[in-house]
Design brief:
CATH topology: TIM Barrel
Number of domains: 1
Helix content: 25-40%
Radius of gyration: 17 Å
Order of helices and strands: HEHEHEHEHHEHEHEEEHE
CATH superfamily: Glycoside hydrolase/deacetylase
Oligomer: single chain
Shape: globular
Largest sheet: 7 strands, parallel, barrel
CATH architecture: Alpha-Beta Barrel
Number of strands: 10
Number of helices: 9
Length: 267
C-alpha cells in the first residue's frame, strides 16, 4: 500500500482556500465523537473541541460513555450551540432495539436540558458493516425515520444509497482525519497512514471534499464524494489542533459551518 499523497499534492487546494466564492458559501456540518469517557477513565478533549464543531456524536454507554458523562456532554454541547446525536455482531431487529434504547436515553437527557436530538450515527465497525449488509443498513434507515432523526452515512456508499432510497433524511459523511480507498471506503486503521494526524492535511482534505466533491486516496487517485457533514475523531492524537485547522480552513474557503438541522433538506 502506498503512503498518503503529500500535502503539496493536494494543491490546487490553495486556490479554494483563498477564494470564498469557489464554495459559494456552501453550508457544511462539522461533527466529532464526544462523551466517550467512562467513570474515572477519560478519553478525548471534549471541552476544547466542542466550541469548534456544529454537531456532536454522543456515546450512549455501550462502547463508551455513561449516564453522567452523557449529561455533562449534553450540557457542554448546549453551551456552545452544538447539535446532538447518539453513538456498535447484531441482527436487524436487535439493532433497531439498540437504536431505540440509546436514542431514547439521550433524547430524554437532552429534553431535560432544553435541547432536542438532531441526528443518529452508527459507531465503529457497525458503520462499516452496513456497507456490505443491506439488512442492517435498512434497519438503521427505518430507525432514523421512526425517530424523526437525521441519519449520518458513509458518503457515496451502499449504506447511504439504501437509506436514501427508503426516504430517510440522510447526511452523507466525509472524514477529514482518515484515508480513503479507491472504492470510497475508509482505509483500515491497521494500515500505516490510515489516520491523518497532520492538521494541515486534514484541513486540506476537508476543503477538497466540501468545495470540489473530491477525496484523494492513499494511491493518489481523486474520487468523487458528495458530503453534507465532515467528521473529525475526538480521540485522534492532536484532535483539538486538527478540528481547529479544519474549521478555519472551511471558513476561509467560504463554507458556512452550521448544524444539519438548519439547512439539510427533509429528503
Amino acid at each position: 500500500m502506498t503512503t498518503l499523497a503529500p500535502l503539496s499534492d493536494l494543491a490546487p487546494l490553495s486556490d479554494a482556500l483563498a477564494s470564498p466564492s469557489a464554495a459559494a458559501r456552501k453550508a457544511i456540518d462539522l461533527n466529532c465523537d464526544m462523551g466517550e469517557s467512562y467513570g474515572r477513565w477519560t478519553l478525548g478533549a471534549d471541552e476544547a473541541i466542542m466550541p469548534l464543531i456544529s454537531s456532536a456524536n454522543v456515546a450512549c454507554g455501550f462502547h463508551g460513555g455513561d449516564p453522567h458523562v452523557m449529561r455533562k456532554t449534553v450540557d457542554l454541547a448546549l453551551a456552545h450551540g452544538v447539535a446532538l446525536r447518539r453513538t456498535m455482531d447484531v441482527s436487524p431487529r436487535e439493532l433497531q432495539d439498540y437504536f431505540a434504547y440509546q436514542t431514547g436515553a439521550l433524547r430524554e437527557l437532552a429534553r431535560a436540558a432544553g435541547a432536542a436530538l438532531q441526528h443518529m450515527k452508527p459507531h465503529g465497525i457497525l458503520y462499516g458493516m452496513m456497507e456490505t449488509d443491506e439488512a442492517l443498513a435498512t434497519a438503521a434507515g427505518q430507525s432514523a425515520m421512526d425517530s424523526d432523526l437525521i441519519l449520518m452515512t458513509l458518503a457515496s456508499g451502499r449504506y447511504d444509497a439504501t437509506c436514501r432510497k427508503m426516504g430517510a433524511r440522510v447526511a452523507s459523511e466525509g472524514f477529514a482525519d482518515r484515508a480513503y480507498n479507491v472504492d470510497g471506503t475508509l482505509v483500515s486503521r491497521k494500515v500505516a497512514g490510515s489516520l491523518i494526524t497532520d492538521p494541515a492535511r486534514a484541513a486540506a482534505q476537508a476543503v477538497l471534499m466540501a468545495t470540489e466533491g473530491k477525496a484523494r486516496t492513499m494511491d493518489g487517485v481523486d474520487i468523487d464524494i458528495s458530503v453534507q457533514t465532515i467528521c473529525c475523531h475526538g480521540d485522534t492524537p492532536g484532535a483539538e489542533r486538527i478540528v481547529r485547522a479544519v474549521r478555519e480552513a472551511l471558513e476561509k474557503a467560504g463554507c458556512q459551518v452550521k448544524p444539519l438541522r438548519d439547512w439539510l433538506p427533509a429528503h
